[in-house]
Structures are given as C-alpha cells and as structure tokens.
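Q: Given only this backbone (395 positions), what sequence would you predict?
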C-alpha cells in the first residue's frame, strides 16, 4: 500500500505507540482488502461502545489506545447500554455493568471524543457531499451515503477507533466512485407516508437486496422517513447505501441495464406481518427512538399528550435521544417521568441489559427495533404509532 511520508512516520511510531498501533491496524486491514492507499476522514463515528457488546476485552483495548493517544479528527460514539447523564433507567442494570460502561465512556471522552452517545451523528455535524468519513453505526452509515452523499463503509469498532486516532481510513468500497453506482432499480408502487411504513420498505430493501446499491423510485420522503428506511435496510441486510430518487445528491436518474423490481402495497403488508410478532394489546410499553430522535421530540410528545388530554399513561412510553441532550433537558425529563414518559439519553435498547427485565412484548414505530428485539432479547414487538398508544393507554 502506498503511504505518505506522514503516514510512514506514524507507522514507525514517531507519534507514539497508540497512533502506531492504530495505523498498523488500518494498514493491515486495508492491505487485506486490496486498498491502494489511505484517505483522510473528517469525522469518525465509533459504534460498539456498549459494555454488552464489547465486554472486558473491548474496554481493555480502548484503555490501551487511550494510554498515549488522542483523536486526530472530530469523533463521536454510539449509544451505550444504559441512559447517560446520571438518569435511572426504567429497568434494572447491574452495578458492575454500570461501572464498566462508565469507564468505557469516560475513556472515550478522555481521548477527545465528543460526549455524544448517539446513532444520529449527522445531527451533531452534518456530512458534506463527497467527504470521506469512517463511521461504524450501520444506520448512520446508510444515512451518510444515501442522504448526504458522504462516503463511508461500515467500519467495525476497533477499526473506527483506530481511524479516530490517525484521521484516516483505507480508500476502498464506498469511498470509490464506481462502487456507488446503483445496481438494482426498485419501483415502489405503494404510498410511503410515515416512518413506520418507510421502515417496512427498508426491511424489504435490506432483506431482498443485501449488499447492493438499490435505486429507489418512491414518492417524496422526508428526512426521518429516509432515516427509518436506511436503518431497517441496514438491519435486515447489508445495505450501506441507496440512491433515492429526487433525494440522494448522487441521483442521476434511473440506472440503465440493471434488474428492475416492483414493490407494491401487498409486499409492504406482507413484510409488516413478517416483522410484527405481537399486538398492541400485549405491549407492556411503547418504545421510540431507534434511530435516536433529536431532542425536540420532547416537545412533540408533550403536544401529543395535550392533544389527547392525557395527564398520565397506564403503560409507559420510552424515548431514546442523544446522550448530549441529557443536561439541557433535565427538567423536562423529570416532568415527563411523572406522566409515564421515560426519556432515555444516550442509550440503545438493542445493546442494553433489557433481556433481564422480564418484558415479554413492546410496541414501537421502529422497524429496526422490531427486527432486533426478538433476536437479541426474546421480546415480541407490535408495530404502532405513538399517538395510537397514547390514545389507548392515556388517562
Ligand atoms: Fe440506534 Fe440502537 Fe437503534 S444504535 S439505530 S437505537 S439499534
């Protein structure tokens, strides 16, 4: 692999052992993939920071890198295994787990990471068209490529951490023009008007065209519908990028000479039935925020409660938001708790200790959550809208 003089210096250990280790890892993986050189990145986002995912081994690796290394570029990290900002989770988390998770987060912050704790890093720093990133959260990767036209592969935790230390990643995969061209044409005949249905469409895209770059012809979608589609596609398949007609900055019109596939209303209904494993009557709580909601969701929830004259919920609503919002929302969070709405900053139920909570079924508007809950926690899932849950369980 060709390395610049500066990259050679880092590899030779002239910027300390942590950067040397990081550069070794990036170069080795890049060489194994056949990359010809490295590229500078402007934002690194690390996933796999939950103690549930990485355990003691991962914690030791992060501590080893932190011993002499600081991030070289703007760097953020994914949600953790329990709420950040000193908030009590509405489910039990063992003390040992809390301590280890805190150590992981503290170490990342010591290395210079933004205290982010979120899977929507594009709301903290908006990616630009054509810029190179090294991101590790599958939904965020798909959003960066699809919605912003930025360039990133889906990097595993250790590689993304290494990229944060040296500010570079191998020039490979979706960093290269020719890998970003659509390979399938998906014509959507059904009307996609909300995040839940957009998620179901994403589920079909991921499970049917995993690893492809689908060109999706669909009615206009808003930002959060695209996010939901990308998250579900990246969960049900290995989808890291779509071109959505009229939305993706790299849209150059429907591709010629590729296979065409039609998705109609019946396909959407069948896919929804496949994903849904419980009814709203069985749901012990409603969860929303996978991917995270931006912090202004708090106002939206207050409006929904007011619109339906609800002062308290008989079954709670849990809402995941970025960890960085914990402090500014402290008062609103406390008020909502009294009404049965639990705002959970900086956490992700999928990588939490939820399987120990004895919950059997939940409702959600996130198809990604519906995909993972039965697999990770043995929890069945109803697909529903928050407003319907409020109407049903509000008093
Ligand atoms: Fe985010 Fe966790 Fe969902 S990282 S996208 S809340 S599975």
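A: Predicted residues:
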């Amino acid at each position: 692999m060709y390395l610049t003089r500066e990259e050679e210096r880092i590899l030779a250990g002239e910027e300390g052992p942590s950067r040397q280790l990081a550069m070794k890892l990036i170069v080795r993986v890049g060489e194994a993939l056949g990359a010809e050189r490295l590229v500078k990145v402007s934002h690194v986002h690390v996933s796999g920071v939950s103690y549930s995912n990485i355990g003691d081994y991962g914690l030791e690796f992060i501590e080893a890198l932190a011993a002499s290394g600081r991030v070289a570029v703007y760097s953020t990290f994914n949600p953790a295994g329990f709420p950040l900002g000193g908030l009590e989770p509405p489910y039990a988390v063992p003390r040992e787990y809390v301590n280890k998770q805190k150590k992981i987060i503290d170490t990342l912050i010591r290395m210079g990471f933004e205290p982010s704790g979120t899977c929507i890093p594009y709301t903290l720093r908006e990616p630009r068209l054509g810029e190179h990133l090294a991101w590790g959260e599958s939904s965020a990767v798909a959003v960066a490529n699809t919605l912003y036209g930025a360039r990133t592969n889906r990097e595993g935790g250790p590689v993304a951490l290494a990229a944060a230390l040296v500010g570079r990643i191998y020039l490979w995969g979706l960093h290269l023009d020719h890998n970003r061209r659509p390979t399938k044409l998906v014509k959507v005949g059904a009307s996609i008007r909300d995040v839940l249905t957009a998620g179901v469409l994403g589920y079909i895209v991921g499970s049917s065209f995993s690893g492809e770059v689908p060109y999706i012809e669909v009615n206009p979608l808003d930002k959060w519908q695209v996010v939901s589609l990308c998250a579900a596609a990246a969960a049900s398949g290995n989808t890291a990028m779509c071109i959505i007609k009229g939305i993706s900055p790299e849209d150059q019109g429907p591709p010629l000479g590729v296979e065409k596939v039609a998705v109609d209303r019946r396909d959407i209904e069948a896919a929804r039935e496949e994903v849904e494993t419980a009814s709203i009557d069985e749901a012990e709580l409603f969860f929303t925020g996978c991917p995270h909601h931006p912090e202004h969701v708090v106002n939206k929830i207050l409006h929904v409660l007011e619109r339906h004259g609800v002062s308290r919920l008989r079954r709670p609503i849990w809402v995941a938001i970025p960890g960085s919002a914990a402090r500014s929302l402290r008062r609103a969070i406390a008020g909502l708790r009294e009404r049965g709405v639990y705002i959970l900053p900086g956490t992700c139920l999928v990588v939490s200790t939820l399987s120990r909570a004895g919950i059997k079924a939940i409702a959600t508007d996130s198809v990604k959550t519906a995909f993972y809950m039965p697999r990770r926690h043995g929890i069945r899932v109803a697909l529903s809208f928050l407003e319907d849950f409020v109407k049903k369980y509000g008093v």
